[in-house]
Design goal:
This protein is of the alpha+beta class and 620 residues long. 29% of the residues lie in helices and 17% in strands. It contains 16 helices and 22 strands. The longest helix has 23 residues, at 141-163.
């Protein structure tokens, strides 16, 4: 069943409607941290750093890994991580493996499925089995034992499905469009679900025949006829999928026909056009719940997309299939739907326009002017950190500077901002601190790289006072922005201690060639070297905001804090103090913003608790 998906500080780009896998961002410079001298950032070579390919069309079958390939993926994971991997917790690993093996609540997640107890009993052995060297020639006997039990179980369920009694054909449409699958934890016995699915399938056949092969594909995918070796491969794929987040809180592995699940929560990525906003799987297909793309309508039962039946797909496969991007050079895709009250399915042809211009990310800004002292403060709310944040913020600043009256100061509202792109963070910082070294980033081998802020044109810079408003949900790239301004003494920070995510994820095609990895490969520190990972940023001024239940340091399989070198340059230190309000702050629609402005304009100047020591004179 489903796993949590994290917002990552990653480097993923959409290029020409395809997915670019790898570190597709401005290449940080590599430095000797002891020298205190830094070259300009190396130019990006897309051919060398990014491989571009379209998303794969789903197969409908479970992911399968051979024993050697599973070990190759695990070995790659352990080698690439930013720090040595810890040991997975067997019970948590067993629960995750059980869920990933079974997308339907039939094969292993159901309370009566034999594989559930087997996986829990042999979890430690299964971990040891996939952690062996890829050069080890021994068989994955534990996975094979679980695979054999699963094969027998699914064969029995198939018989129950086939022997089910058909419901009335008059109820075929309501049964075909009603919810049938459970999210975790699965409570319904698999035998009961198999019987229910069989009744719905026969009712559908009686009313509509095998339209778009919905009924036959449902049976073939829900109760697949696989060999013991194939079921063992499915167990290994599920085990690898459970293993990666067990050693990396922000890591994941996904097979190629489900890889979109790795990118879906990444705010640095433009998700592009899809057939729907929200859907529900049913016994015979996909029901569109929200935001259908015309000519689809809300409530449609989608039977096939591009000739691929939707019945029996996993959630991840269905979402990947919904993306409107070319898979093999085609410009249109056929979509077949069944609508309430109609006896025959409808076939629509949907255009795949991969040249459509992206919506400007700056539209996500909410800029509010608040009466302050004898002028106004511009409050800019940033919900996330996309790749183009620097350019969008620069344009916003340029507009503010051209308006009359020009704001006295800017308050960046980063509350609830879970982060996004390194380039986006560096670009935003460049609006206030142009052309300066920002973050030391450390890889597993000890090599330290440095990210610099760009130097935008004069009109897109803000030379005036600035401050940041943060809370416990401010994380990752958003912490980069607030932390850099505080570390360079450019802008005060107010609010509450931040989340503390000081690590970077990258995407890779795995070496087995059947999946994609997202892994934590670097740790970063603030410009003064102060650690962020697991620590967070302590604001100059506290507002006593609610404390989140979860922080980076509370996650399982997170990484230790890292203190880096002080890379600040003396010439970029400092900036104008936030102006006093002389008792006048008004016009706030958000009480927290009003409180922040009152504190900023009333308190004597303070320096960040994360400021570290001052750089040496003459540092460059």
């Amino acid at each position: 069943m489903r796993r949590a998906r994290f917002v990552t500080l990653g480097a993923l780009a959409a290029i020409g409607g395809a997915v670019a896998v790898g570190l597709c961002s401005r290449a940080p410079e590599r430095v000797n941290a002891r020298l205190g001298r830094f070259r300009g950032p190396a130019p990006l070579d897309p051919a060398a750093q990014c491989s571009v390919r379209p998303l794969s069309m789903p197969t409908g079958g479970p992911a399968v890994l051979g024993c050697r390939d599973a070990r190759r993926v695990v070995s790659e994971v352990r080698a690439r991580l930013a720090a040595p991997a810890g040991e997975p917790i067997p019970n948590a690993f067993a629960s995750a493996t059980t869920g990933w093996l079974d997308p339907h609540g039939l094969w292993s997640a159901a309370p009566d499925a034999p594989a559930k107890a087997l996986i829990r009993r042999h979890a430690a052995e299964l971990i040891a089995e996939i952690e062996k060297s890829p050069r080890d020639g021994s068989d994955c006997t534990v996975a094979r034992e679980i695979g054999r039990a699963t094969q027998l179980w699914v064969n029995d369920l198939r018989k129950i499905y086939e022997s089910a009694t058909s419901d009335s054909p008059k109820r075929a449409y309501p049964l075909a469009t009603a919810a049938v699958f459970e999210d975790d934890p699965v409570q319904r016995p698999a035998r009961q679900l198999a019987r229910d699915l069989g009744a719905r399938g026969k009712s559908f056949r009686a009313a509509y025949g095998d339209a778009e092969h919905a009924a036959s594909k449902a049976e073939a995918r829900l109760f697949p006829e696989l060999s013991v070796e194939q079921w063992a491969g499915a167990v290994l794929a599920a085990a690898v999928r459970a293993y990666v987040p067990a050693v990396d809180a922000h890591g994941q592995w996904a097979p190629l026909d489900e890889e979109w699940s790795l990118y879906a929560a990444d705010s640095a990525l433009d998700v592009g056009p899809r057939l729907w906003g929200r859907m529900m799987r049913t016994a015979l297909g996909i029901v569109v719940l929200e935001d259908p793309t015309p000519p689809l309508e809300q409530g449609d039962l989608v039977l096939s997309i591009g000739g691929i039946a939707t019945a029996g797909l996993s959630v991840e496969q269905a979402e990947q299939l919904s993306r409107l991007e070319p898979a093999g050079g085609e410009t249109v895709r056929d979509v077949v739907v069944l609508r309430k009250g109609e006896k025959l399915p409808r076939r629509f042809r949907v255009s795949l326009d991969d040249e459509a211009p992206a919506e400007p990310l700056g539209d996500d800004f909410e800029v509010t002017r608040v009466s302050y002292g004898d002028g106004e403060v511009a409050v800019i709310a940033m919900p996330d950190v996309p790749d183009g944040l620097g350019e969008d913020l620069g344009r916003t600043v340029s507009e503010l500077r051209s308006e009359s009256p020009t704001p006295l100061a800017i308050l960046l509202d980063l509350r609830g901002n879970g982060g996004g792109s390194i380039d986006g963070a560096a670009g935003a910082i460049g609006v206030f601190i142009p052309g300066a070294p920002m973050f030391p980033l450390r890889r597993r081998g000890g090599a330290v790289e440095v990210q610099r802020s760009p130097a935008p044109s004069g009109a897109m810079r803000w030379p005036g006072p600035v401050a940041t408003l943060v809370d416990g949900y401010t994380a990752s790239a958003a912490e980069m922005i607030a932390g850099a301004l505080a570390s360079y003494r450019r802008g005060e920070m107010i609010g509450a201690r931040t989340f503390g995510k000081g690590c970077v994820q990258e995407y890779f095609d795995d070496r087995s060639g059947v999946g994609v990895l997202r892994l934590t490969t670097m740790l970063f520190a603030m410009p003064d070297g102060s650690p962020l990972q697991g620590v967070g940023l302590l604001p100059d001024l506290s507002l006593g905001l609610p404390t989140p239940r979860e922080r980076e340091k509370t996650l399982t399989a997170t990484f230790p804090a890292w203190r880096g070198p002080d890379i600040r340059v003396a010439g970029a230190l400092g900036g104008p103090e936030f102006p006093a309000h002389h008792g006048h702050v008004g016009g706030c629609t958000d009480a927290v913003v009003c409180s922040a402005l009152r504190h900023l304009g009333a308190a004597p100047p303070r320096r960040s608790a994360a400021r570290g020591h001052s750089p040496k004179r003459g540092a460059r």
